[in-house]
Structures are given as structure tokens and as C-alpha cells.
Write a sequence for this structure.
């Protein structure tokens, strides 16, 4: 079927934009590099316009060929990988800025525009595109919207979807449809826009997005708070909002993560003090005077809390964020691989969740660590493994099972900001009430009666 | 059928909570008092718990009886009126605060709690529930969520739905279901919460809502900007955000509205200056110093704009808002009735939209006026009528038809913050792409296969 399929698709988008996809192709993997995530794409097509996307979807839908939309490939959960075959639609050629209206705080861009470009365009016009998921140089805005990506600043500014005014999307069986618009108040119909945001390509292919922007904050100031232990760290994370403070970032590194990353601590003259067993990354942004007041209040508060060992001002914010973003790589390097699950605990049960995750890993004889966006209880719960040791991988999988059960039991979520993709398929059923699970599946059938839109992904059961 | 039905429902909720509904009952009308909105409810039931709501919905669904959920009855579009008969479920007895956690900025309350109580509880704990739709003393939080109500402060803080973390809802055929949760990041399933927000009782009956709160801003300062005319007024509304200012309110009154309301101008020593043909209500809130800076910047900017006649500080903010909220009554009093349509123009076409609305009304020989939330282009476009003059009512209806066509043509929305209800049924089809309209209808069928949930409301066609 491959050659026939590629010939047909070539007529739609041009032969130079249709490629075979050998098993080892990057188009058959994602950034998670997790076992079991192996694509079997029959072709990758690179449409140059929404109309070409529409034509490709229409052809595939007519010929019962699966459609797997793909952004920058920076996902971790296999969402953009054609695990069941079919055609990968890569949006990478679609990166036009269709509208940029700084005075109206908005831009309309094609789905393949890298998120870093969205942020740069905003910045160059005195504005801010607030969401800041990782890998912004590689990831594309369409993929960020399709996964409703988060990031550290979501604490104050909300996740990607909060900034999406409209979507241009190709729906089955091959229709180009506009959803939403610039109107900030619009109750004319059911909220299809929110339904498509975070749907991970299972309901349609996003081809363009209308984004809202904000005036850039005058300044931002970050610090690293070093604490004795997890309990005190989680108490401090609750104490800040309880005192009326609204940080723009409130991330954490647990003791294990901090120990692993101490060697590259971003304040070169310093090291975490002896006994440091937990760290917070705390940022305030806004008007200079407001930030100054908030910092003073926060520092006074932290000075009164038990277990706060030191507050280090991040004199070089870029170095701080490089250090923080380096967690993935440094942690992976410990034993050759890691398995990291993105989950959410209720903020008031974060310390409990982290302690029990550590116990779960320990019972399986695995070293664990955790970091994440503590202000929202969003945890990247990680076990370190030797990628060659099959028994370790099996035990890591068992840790995952127990972790997801724990998250549900404590009232959190099995997926915070990395999507469900392929790897977390079926986990929703444990988290949601039965009728809601049935509606999830009914919505999928409504949008995609043939089940060809990114099959196997974001499955409830 | 009435007595049998009431006897059965009495077994579920207690006889004292099931009532007959004579045609003239308030339960058969809403605050819009518009022609054609006449309920024919066979009974109103006042359940005392979510379980009782579930039992009533289950009974009605089994017996093919329509279900019309009702909050405070402050809607304008007939959404809470049983125009096709059936049972009205009034949530007014369900007003418990199930959870109030000021330190975590959240509360979980039953749907029948008046919105003013939600706001008071937040305020008494140093917090703010940001949405501020009108009639907060009478309206209920469940109704606000079901209509995704707006209000002046939505400009900065977003509409009601932006503050809803979770819903407890009764779905057909009679299931109590929880949707969403406190996790600010949660991509485990499709966004059913956003689908239910603004669904106006057509997908389910909301019984409780989890609400997010914010620390209360330190201060707020409002002023009235008086301008020569509509064009200059709309230019000023665009100039403020273009200069990086972020008002918490940016409302407007057009010249006709201003003239009608001049007699009760909220600065008793003053009157609008001669030649004032447009007014803005401008508010900034936040830290004292920030607000002071923003006011200074705004005043400097306004001082440089053509057509700005005067900026009056609202020395008594309560008086300002009473004046503003009085628009409905004062305008109605002009000729005995008014017909006001809640629509949205793109902000950059607001002046054009307002001018063309005035022309449309004028061609029909009717006096018009308009006010609303200009920062979002949200307009309450109004014609003044004699309620006894049938020909005026017919011409007013024609004005409405032309207005909705204009809104769609200019790229706005036929419904901003007052819902679709009964009166705007069928208007969505003109605004949305065909496949999106079909999905709107498909979602309705998925949630409500028998079509018993608030029938005749929020219809796309």
C-alpha cells in the first residue's frame, strides 16, 4: 500500500513533501524515547497550507488510513508517534504569522510555528506570550495547543489553552473549520474550542491558532529557597499563597534531585548548604515596585518558617533556568535512563504524595527523585534505571502502576501537562466517574466516527 | 398528568418542595420579560440535595418529562423558562458552602448560593471572586456558570468559567457526575468542564461548583471619561491597551444612553459637559502604587487624545456602579419598554458596529442607544419601545434580525454574556461553520439523547 499511498498524497502536497519513514526515523519516535513507543508510519507528509492538510485528511479518511498529526516531536508520551501505522502529518512547513496586532494584544499564527518564535514576536512588540512549556525552540505552537502544555509560569498565567482565542482545525472527514474568535465573551455555542485544546490530535488537526498576548511584565525576579526537608518545603509552598503572595513560578526540586544537580548549581560561588534536602524556585514578576514588595514580604515570611536554610537570589536568571531545564538530562545521566511520570497531587497533599512515591520506588529497589511545579502540585515523578536491565524496567513499570493508583486515591490527576498520548492510554477510567468516561468516548466517536484520528491515543479505557 | 407527576415528585423531594406553577408565576418568566417567553411548567421542584436533583432528573428522564433547571431567574433570554412545559428544577434551596479554604484560594459551593454570597465569603477572607455579572443579589452561582456570565471586570479577569475548577452535575438519564477538580493542570481527558460551562442547562443540571479565588486587589480606582463622540470614544478604548495599560473595567455609554442617564450622573456637583456624546467607565485595580502609576499614565494619554472633554474621578465608586447598573431601568422608563440585545463586535470594529446599529434602528423609526463592555466589544444594543404598540415591537424585531446579521458579517458574536436561551435559538447557524454547527448538535444528542434537558434552548438551528 505504501507506494500507492505516497503517490496519491504526492498529488495533494507535492512529491517533495511526502517521505517514506524508516523505523529509525525521528518521525517514528518522540522525545520521551520510552519503550513501546515505536512508530510504523507509512509516510510522513508536510503540507504547506491548511487546504493541503484538509485534502490529506480527506484522502486518508476516505481510504481508511490513520492520521497522526505531529508538531515538534518534543512530546514524552508517544502522542505524535504512529504506533498503529498510517500517515504522519507534520505541520513543520506551516509557520506563517497570518496576523500580528500588538495594539490589540493578539496574533494569529500557523500551527507549525515554533513556540520560541511566538514568544520572540510577542517580546519584540513589548508583549508576552505567557505559556512556557519546555523545549520551546523545538516544540510548535500547534503541538502546545493540542497537548494544552503547561510550564512553570502556568501557576500565575494558566496553561496554554488559557491564551487560545480561536482555532483553525481540520475535522473528519476532511473539513476546514474555524472555532472561537477574538471575542473574549462569546456564549453563542458549546465550547468546542476548549474541547479541541488538549485533544492531542484525536479529534482534529489544528492548522492555525489565534493567541492572546499580555503586556510584558516590567521585571521578574527569581530566587532559590533551600530547605531542610520535603515536609518543610511543602509547608513553605503553601505558606506563600496563604499570605496573599502570588508568585509567577513556584517550582520545587526534592532532595534527591537537588543532590544530583548540586554540581551544576547556578550560583557558581555557592553550593547548597549541608543539610539542604529540598529546594524551591520562586519567581515574582510585574511592576518593579510590586515585585520588590512581594520579594520583601516573601523573604520575611520565609525567614520565620522552620527549615528554611537559605534564600539565594538568582543573579543570573538565564543560568537558573538552564540549570532547571537541565534536570532531565542530568537525572538521565545518573544511570543511563530514567522514567518520569507527569502527575498532579492536590497541593495540600503534595508532601504526602511525594513521600509515598518514594516508598513505592524504594519497595521496588529503585532510586527515585521528583521535581516539578509545586504551586499546582504538578510532579515529574522519576525513577532512575539502567536501560539494559530488563528487570529494572519491569519494576519501574510497577512503580508507575502504583503511582497512578496513588494519584487517583489522593484526588489528583494522572496527567498534568505532558498529555496522555499512547503511554497513558486507559488510565482515565480509574480517575473519572463512569458516565464522564462514556462521554469522553462518545465525543471521540462524534468527531471521528471511523476512529482514524490519531488512533490509540488519549484512550479513556 | 400534573397531579400524578406532582405526587411522584413529592415522594422524591417532599411534598412541601413541589409546587404548581400558574401561568403568572415568577417561575414561568425571567428578568427579560420579553414577548414570547411564557413558561408552561407542570411543576416546580425545589430539591435539597444533589441526590434529590439526581432522583428528579432520573424520574423525568424515565417518564419523558422535560427538565428546566433554574437559578435566580435573572436571565434575559428565557433560558430558565419552561416554554415547552415540563418540570422546573429550582436550585434555590441548595446553598451550602461545602468547602472554604482561604489559604488555598478556593471554595466549593452548591449551585443555588447567590453570587453575592460567593463574593462576600471571598471578601471576608481577604480574597476576591472576580466575576461580577449584574444582579448578583438575586442570581445564583450555578446560573452564572450555566450561562458563563460576564460582567465589567471580565475584561481583566475573564468570564465566570475562567474561575470554575470543577462541577458536580446531574447528567441524563440521572447520574451524579464530577467533572474537573482543583488541579490547575489536568489533561487526563477531554475538557468536559468547559463544555458544561455555558451550556445553559441543555447538557445537565449543575448542582455544585468548585471556584478559584484570588487575593483581593489592594485598591481600585474608577473614573468617567467624557468624550465628544462615538468615534473618539472607540479610539480612546483602543489607545489604552495599545499603550500597555490593563484596566480592570473599560465600559462605555453611547451618547443616547449618556443623555438618558445624565440626570442621575453620579458626581452630584457636576453634569456631563455640553457636547459630551460618549462616556467611558475606566477602572484600574491592584497594588496602590501600580494603580496610581496606571491612572497617571492613562490621564496623560487621554489628555493627548482628540475629543476627550473631561475625566471625572469617581469619588464614590458605589454611586458610580449604582448609576451604571441603573441603565436598564432608566432606559426602560423612557418609553415604557426596551429591547436590548447582547452582542459582540470585534473591538477594532466597535465604532462601525455601533454606527450601523444606530442606522438600522433609525431606518425602522426607532430610538436606539447602546452601552456595554467596550474593552471586549460587548454591546447591549437597545431600542426603546412602547410596549403597547404592536407595530413598534414588530419593527424592533426587524432591528434585531438586521443587528444579528451585522454582527456575524463583522466577525463578532450573536451572544456575549447573556446566553442564547430561548430567544436566540437558531442564530448560531449563521455564525458558525457548518461542521461546527453539526458538532454542537451532536454534543447535545450525546449528552441528552431524548432531548429532555431544557428543550428549545441554545438550539443551533
Amino acid at each position: 500500500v505504501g507506494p500507492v499511498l505516497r503517490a496519491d498524497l504526492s498529488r495533494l502536497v507535492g512529491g517533495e513533501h511526502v517521505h517514506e519513514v524508516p523505523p529509525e526515523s525521528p518521525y517514528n519516535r518522540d522525545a520521551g524515547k520510552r519503550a513501546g513507543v515505536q512508530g510504523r508510519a507509512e509516510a510522513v507528509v508536510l503540507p504547506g497550507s491548511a487546504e493541503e492538510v484538509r485534502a490529506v485528511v480527506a484522502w486518508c479518511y476516505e481510504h481508511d488510513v490513520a492520521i497522526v498529526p505531529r508538531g515538534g516531536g518534543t512530546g514524552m508520551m508517544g502522542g505524535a508517534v504512529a504506533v498503529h501505522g498510517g500517515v504522519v502529518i507534520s505541520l513543520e512547513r506551516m509557520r506563517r504569522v497570518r496576523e500580528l496586532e500588538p495594539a490589540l494584544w493578539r496574533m494569529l499564527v500557523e500551527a507549525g510555528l515554533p513556540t520560541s518564535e511566538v514568544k520572540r514576536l510577542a517580546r519584540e512588540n513589548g508583549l508576552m506570550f505567557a505559556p512556557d512549556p519546555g523545549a520551546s525552540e523545538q516544540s510548535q505552537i500547534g503541538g502546545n495547543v493540542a497537548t494544552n502544555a503547561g510550564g512553570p509560569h502556568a501557576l500565575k498565567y494558566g496553561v496554554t489553552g488559557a491564551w487560545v482565542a480561536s482555532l483553525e482545525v481540520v475535522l473528519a472527514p476532511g473539513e476546514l473549520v474555524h472555532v472561537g474568535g477574538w471575542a473574549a465573551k462569546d456564549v453563542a455555542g458549546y465550547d468546542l474550542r476548549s474541547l479541541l485544546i488538549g485533544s492531542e490530535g484525536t479529534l482534529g488537526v489544528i492548522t492555525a491558532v489565534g493567541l492572546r498576548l499580555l503586556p510584558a511584565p516590567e521585571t521578574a525576579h527569581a530566587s532559590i529557597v533551600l530547605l531542610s526537608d520535603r515536609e518543610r518545603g511543602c509547608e513553605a509552598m503553601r505558606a506563600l499563597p496563604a499570605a496573599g503572595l502570588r508568585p509567577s513560578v513556584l517550582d520545587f526540586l526534592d532532595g534527591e534531585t537537588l543532590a544530583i544537580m548540586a554540581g551544576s548549581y547556578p550560583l557558581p560561588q555557592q553550593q547548597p548548604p549541608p543539610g539542604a534536602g529540598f529546594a524551591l524556585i520562586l519567581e515574582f514578576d510585574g511592576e518593579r515596585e510590586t515585585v520588590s514588595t512581594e520579594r520583601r514580604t516573601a523573604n520575611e515570611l520565609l525567614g520565620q518558617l522552620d527549615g528554611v536554610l537559605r534564600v539565594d537570589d538568582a543573579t543570573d536568571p538565564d543560568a537558573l533556568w538552564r540549570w532547571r531545564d537541565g534536570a532531565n538530562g542530568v537525572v538521565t545521566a545518573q544511570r543511563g535512563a530514567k522514567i518520569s511520570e507527569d502527575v498532579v497531587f492536590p497541593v495540600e497533599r503534595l508532601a504526602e504524595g511525594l513521600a509515598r512515591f518514594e516508598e513505592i520506588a524504594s519497595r521496588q529497589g529503585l532510586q527515585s527523585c521528583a521535581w516539578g511545579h509545586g504551586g499546582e502540585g504538578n510532579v515529574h515523578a522519576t525513577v532512575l534505571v539502567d536501560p539494559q536491565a530488563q528487570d529494572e524496567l519491569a519494576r519501574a513499570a510497577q512503580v508507575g502502576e502504583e503511582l497512578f493508583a496513588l494519584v487517583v486515591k489522593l484526588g489528583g490527576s494522572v496527567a498534568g501537562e505532558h498529555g496522555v498520548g499512547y503511554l497513558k492510554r486507559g488510565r482515565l477510567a480509574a480517575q473519572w466517574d463512569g458516565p464522564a468516561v462514556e462521554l469522553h468516548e462518545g465525543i471521540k466517536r462524534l468527531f471521528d466516527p471511523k476512529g482514524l484520528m490519531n488512533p490509540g491515543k488519549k484512550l479513556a479505557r
Chain A has a mean pLDDT of 96. DSSP finds 15 helices and 18 strands in chain A. Chain A touches chain B through 88 residues (CB under 8 Å).
